[in-house]
């Protein structure tokens, strides 16, 4: 389905933002409108090289206007071609795909942990949470990490949404020195009285695999619910090719023991409960 | 979903308004058109209903099934290559019984032929799987994947050795009355030798080609890009190889041939038919465009109309030896 590019611009260095008019071309799903954590498969060129579509999560969702925005980093041939597309060009997309974040009714605080470009779906998520009136002003806490200050994206978005933002850079030139995981783990939040440890708080994380594993460990230690958005190479995006699998732990029918099964990141995810993932094997 | 779930009223009507007949007969299976969805690229059909009217396809070849479910290979399982991709899924599947109980009832609702792709680790396993499908309603044919290692005898792939091919196909033949299509591996010196072995053993039709063996390396990490190191290459990159093998086999063997390998468009499909294929399968293209198979049916129809072809069978094997 052809989406029209409304805007495609560089944010900084290799990071870009693309706004797509998708009015009338989104596939009907049981879930209805596109939701945060879901993604699109985008064919960046009509030719055979690059061959496969590229999965891109939604950075912002404007349901009324049928506009989807994505945030991407140029890392190879596909994203390079994307970065050269112009306003008015059309691109072939499949959307929405996959299972997004689920926002529990009783959630009092959302804790968003994002590493690098993993921040993209977090903006859509924060907007949705705010829109639902859940988590009163200030009750969305965001931890963003990146290599340098130029890898810290969307700071302004979160401020606009009214979230509390903490930043860490590996070179220490912006915010605290370290990673978003260090930040999240840091002493300020170790206080048992801190709202951050409130059982009604939910962690949502997106970023590199190692980061997600570390966040999942912290969540487990603190006995907090945690949802992670995974990123894997995909071919189809619809659950047919079985290329993007991740090892998960599933309860058997009698619920007495767990078995390990491969699940598709594209169809069963990309968002999973952190405790469902076998972090050792994936 | 458009008409999905409802048997098309036009079921049985094979001619469109302008009179082009796209129907073909493969091994006794009447297909309303020569376009099939290839095994492993179309799930069990259900995955594609948001994009394709399954009633419009000649047949669906379901993801390869074994006697019990298979977990498949560890990831990474796929990697993009120039004009194609490598995969090493490792034959992950739900097992034949789960397919019959959980997936087949859905497919029965459609007016399309269901062909079950299957495999085994040994001759006995191949036979066990086909026995389970005996007199199961809604299975119209079998496609036998012989690109599997023979666990019992030195791990040699059945499909790379004419003797092993003959033995495994003969054994399966004795255990089923369903139309039997044997899917050939291109990773051999002379595909017509294997094709002949399958034909002599009682195959009703041949499908070719399966993926070409290949690999890709990440020069930054100096590691293979697939966890399994090697995988199967598919996509438009392999089309010329596939086309040549179809042409060669069609000349050598008197069995209907189903052409597979990098078919992305109706033009590609027509090429295969000219080379000698009686039907074709759309595989990797489904990943790029989930509606590819349906578009290819429409494109073939227009091609025939524009070129005054009344019956698609007229063009099969036009290219001389």
Question: Can you offer a commentary on this structure?
Answer:
The complex is a heterodimer of chains A (282) and B (321). Chain A is built from 5 helices and 16 strands. Chain A is globular, with a radius of gyration of 18 Å. The longest helix of chain A is centred in the last third of the chain and has 13 residues. Chain A is an alpha/beta fold and 282 residues long. In chain A, the strands form 3 sheets. A 7-stranded antiparallel sheet of chain A has the order 4-3-7-1-2-6-5. In chain A, strands 11-10-9-8-12-13-16 form a 7-stranded mixed sheet, sandwiched between helices. Chain A has 3 domains: 96 residues, Elongation Factor Tu (Ef-tu), domain 3 (Beta Barrel); 128 residues, Nucleotide-binding domain of ferredoxin-NADP reductase (FNR) module (Rossmann fold, 3-Layer(aba) Sandwich); 38 residues, no CATH class. Chain B is an alpha/beta fold and 321 residues long. Chain B has one domain: Aldolase class I (TIM Barrel), CATH 3.20.20.70. Chain B is 27% helix and 20% strand. Chain B has an 8-stranded parallel barrel, surrounded by 6 helices. At the A-B interface, strand 14 of A face strand 5, strand 6 and helix 7 of B.
Instruction: Work out the radius of gyration of chain A.
Output: 18 Å
Oligomeric form of this entry?
heterodimer
CATH class of the largest domain in chain A: Alpha Beta
Topology order of chain B in helix (H) and strand (E) letters: EEEEEEHEHEHEHEEEEEHEHEHH
Summarize the biggest pleated sheet of chain B: 8 strands, parallel, barrel
CATH fold annotation of the largest domain in chain A? Rossmann fold
Q: Could you give the count of β-strands of chain B?
A: 16
Share of helix of chain A, binned: 10-25%
Number of domains of chain B: 1
- Uncertain stretches of chain B: 1-17
Strand residue percentage of chain A: 25-35%
Largest interface: A-B, 32 and 35 residues
CATH topology of chain B: TIM Barrel
Number of helices of chain A: 5
Reading side by side through the largest sheet of chain A, how are the strands ordered? 4-3-7-1-2-6-5
- What is the CA–CA distance across the termini of chain A? 33 Å
Q: What is the CATH domain class of chain B?
A: Alpha Beta
Mean pLDDT of chain A: 88
Query: Helix- and strand-based class of chain A?
Result: alpha/beta
């Amino acid at each position: 389905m052809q989406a029209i590019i409304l805007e495609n611009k560089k944010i900084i260095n290799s990071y870009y933002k693309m706004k797509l008019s998708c009015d009338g071309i989104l596939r009907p799903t049981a879930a209805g409108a596109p939701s945060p954590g879901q993604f699109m498969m985008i064919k960046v060129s009509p030719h055979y090289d690059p061959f496969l579509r590229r999965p891109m999560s939604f950075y912002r969702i404007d349901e009324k206007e049928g506009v989807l925005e994505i945030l991407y980093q140029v890392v190879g041939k596909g994203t390079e071609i994307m970065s050269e597309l112009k306003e008015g060009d059309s691109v072939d997309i499949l959307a929405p795909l996959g299972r997004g974040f689920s926002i529990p009714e009783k959630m009092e605080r959302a804790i968003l942990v994002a590493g690098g470009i993993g921040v993209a779906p977090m903006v859509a998520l924060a907007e949705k949470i705010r829109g639902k009136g859940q988590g009163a002003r200030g009750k969305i806490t965001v931890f963003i990490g990146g290599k340098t200050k130029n890898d810290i994206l969307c700071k302004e978005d979160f401020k606009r949404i009214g979230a509390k933002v903490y930043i860490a850079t590996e070179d220490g030139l912006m915010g605290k020195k370290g990673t978003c995981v260090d930040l999240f783990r840091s002493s300020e939040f170790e206080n048992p009285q801190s709202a951050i440890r409130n059982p009604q708080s939910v962690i949502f994380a997106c970023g590199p695999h190692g980061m997600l594993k570390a966040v999942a460990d912290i969540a487990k230690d603190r006995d907090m619910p945690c949802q992670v958005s995974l990123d894997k190479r995909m071919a189809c995006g619809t659950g047919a090719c079985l290329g993007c699998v991740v090892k998960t732990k599933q309860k058997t029918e009698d619920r007495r023991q767990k078995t390990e099964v491969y699940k598709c990141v594209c169809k069963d995810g990309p968002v999973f409960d952190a405790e469902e993932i076998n972090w050792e094997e994936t | 979903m458009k008409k999905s779930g409802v048997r098309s009223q036009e079921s049985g009507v094979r001619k469109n308004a302008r009179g082009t007949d796209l129907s073909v007969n493969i091994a006794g299976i009447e297909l309303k058109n020569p376009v099939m969805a290839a095994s492993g690229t179309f799930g069990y059909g259900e995955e594609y209903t948001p994009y394709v009217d399954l009633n419009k396809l000649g047949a669906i070849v379901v993801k390869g099934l074994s006697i019990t479910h298979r977990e498949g290979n560890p990831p990474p399982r796929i990697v993009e290559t120039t004009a194609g991709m490598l995969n090493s899924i490792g034959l992950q599947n739900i097992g034949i019984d789960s397919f019959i109980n959980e997936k087949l009832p859905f497919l029965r609702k459609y007016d399309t032929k269901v062909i079950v792709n299957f495999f085994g680790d040994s001759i006995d396993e191949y036979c066990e799987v086909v026995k389970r499908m005996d007199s199961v309603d809604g299975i119209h044919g079998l496609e036998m994947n012989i690109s599997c290692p023979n666990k019992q005898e030195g791990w040699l792939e059945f499909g790379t050795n004419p003797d092993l091919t003959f033995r495994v196909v003969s054994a399966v033949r004795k255990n089923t009355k369903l139309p039997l299509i044997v899917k050939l591996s291109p990773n051999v010196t002379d595909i017509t030798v294997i094709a002949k072995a399958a034909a002599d053993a009682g195959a009703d039709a041949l499908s070719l080609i399966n993926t070409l063996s290949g690999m890709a390396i990440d020069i930054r990490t100096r590691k293979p890009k697939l966890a399994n190191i090697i995988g199967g290459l598919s996509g438009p990159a392999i089309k010329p190889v596939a086309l040549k093998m179809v042409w060669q086999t069609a000349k050598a063997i008197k069995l209907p041939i189903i052409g597979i390998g990098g078919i992305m468009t109706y033009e590609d499909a027509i090429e295969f038919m000219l080379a000698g294929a009686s039907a074709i399968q759309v595989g990797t293209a489904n990943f790029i465009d989930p509606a590819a198979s349906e578009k290819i049916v429409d494109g073939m129809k227009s091609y025939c109309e524009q070129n005054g072809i009344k019956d698609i069978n007229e063009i099969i094997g036009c290219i001389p030896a």
